[in-house]
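Thread: quick sanity check before group meeting

JM: Hey all, I'm pulling together slides for Thursday and realized we never actually wrote out the predicted structure for the chain we discussed last week. Dropping the sequence here so it's in one place. If anyone has concerns about the input, flag it before I start.
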Amino acid sequence: QPVATDTTSPTVAPVSTCGASLPLVNAVEPTPEDILLGRGPAIQSHPGNVRFREWLEEYRDEYERTPRHKKRLVAAEMTSILSSNGIRFLKKRGPDKKSWVAIDSKEAEEKISQLFRSRRKKQRE
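JM (edit): ok, ran it. Output follows.
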């Protein structure tokens, strides 16, 4: 028997589990300030992603000068700054991958570190 889905709330999107429909309670609507995780031109050209890449460039030298065992602290500081300014890292969730949810700070730190590593690799090529 299907579970009722709240269709009146803008923060709820259906998630299918074994034929039942469950609410995705933490779904959010992206703003131009948010950083969207994913691939493709729509994601890359999102205003928050464009500003984020520019901001990463400003931090790149500091990150590269930081000893390896302290790089996580730089990523944590950056995550904290973004969060305090209301900027979220969002990824798609749900069976249709159309609902956006905010990731936690640890996952955001990992994404920041990953982006620095990938930019370093591209710079070497």
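AS: nice. DSSP finds four helices and six strands in the chain. The two ends are 55 Å apart (CA to CA).
JM: adding both to the slides.
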